[in-house]
Amino acid sequence: MLVQPFTGNLKALMDSNGEGTIYRHCYSTPDIEAAYDELIDAGVQPENENGKPLSRDNLQSPSGTRIIWLPKRFGHFSIELLEEKELEAFIKDAFAEEPAQIF
User: Fold this and answer.
1) Structural fold of domain 9-87
2) How many other C-beta atoms can be found within 10 angstroms of the C-beta atom of residue 23?
C-alpha cells in the first residue's frame, strides 16, 4: 500500500527527499509475542513508534494495534511488524466498498 502524508514529520521527509521515497516497510505476523521473543533471542530490542525500547507487556500502539518497530539502521527508514489480524482488519476496512445510497 502506498501512502502520501499530508502533514507532519513524514510530509517533511517526503518534501526533502522527493516523490517515491520509501520510509517504511510493514510486515505482519500471526503471533506478535512470539515475534517479540524471537527478536529478543536474536539480540534485537524491539522499539515503540518513538524509537524507545518496547517491553513485551506493552505491545499496544496508541491506535490500539499491537505493533513492533525494529531499530532504525538506515536513516529514516523503518520496519514495523503488525499483528496479522489487525492488519487484515485495517485492509478490509480501507478497501471496503460502501453500498450505493439511493436518495
Assistant:
1) 2,3-Dihydroxybiphenyl 1,2-Dioxygenase; domain 1 (3.10.180)
2) 15
